[in-house]
Amino acid sequence: MMNNQEHREAAETVSHLIKGIEIAMLITVTEEGPVSRPMKMQEVEFAENPLFPDKSDTDKYGHLQQHPEVKARAARD
């Protein structure tokens, strides 16, 4: 398990790697299995957790409430 400093360094590395990427795939889990969907990245200077803003009245939000573990995929052109 990472300590706080290791976690912050890893988060900074990921933040640097994904900087400038506008769209990423957010993968959530439903009762039927995994669901992938494109999401627009929110531009932030540094975030320990990339942000995918969304409304609380969506299916995706419900999926996250039931299964908060997610995966995200991002790639450059």
* Straight-line distance between termini: 33 Å
Poorly predicted ranges (pLDDT <50, ≥5 residues)?
Answer: none
Overall tally of domains: 1
Q: Could you state the oligomeric state of the chains shown?
A: single chain
> Shape, please?
globular
CATH superfamily: Electron Transport, Fmn-binding Protein, Chain A
| Rg from Cα | 14 Å
Q: Could you estimate the helical fraction of the residues in percent?
A: 25-40%
Order of helices and strands: HEEHE
**Biggest sheet: strand arrangement:** 2-1-3
Taking all residues together, what is the mean pLDDT? 80
What descriptors fit this protein?
single chain, 77 residues, alpha+beta, Pnp Oxidase, Chain A, three-stranded antiparallel beta sheet, 2 helices
Write a structural description.
This protein has 77 residues and is of the alpha+beta class. It has a single domain, classed as Pnp Oxidase, Chain A, CATH 2.30.110.10. The protein has helices at 4-18, 59-66; strands at residues 23-30, 33-40, 71-73. A 3-stranded antiparallel beta sheet has the order 2-1-3, with helices on one face. Strand 1 and strand 2 (33-40) form a beta hairpin. Residues 9-72 form the General stress protein FMN-binding split barrel domain. It comes from Paenibacillus apis. Residues 48-77 are annotated as: Disordered. InterPro entries: Split_barrel_FMN-bd, YdaG_split_barrel_FMN-bd.
SSE map:
Blueprint (H helix, E strand, L loop, with lengths): L3 H15 L4 E8 L2 E8 L18 H8 L4 E3 L4
Antiparallel strand pairs: 1-2, 1-3
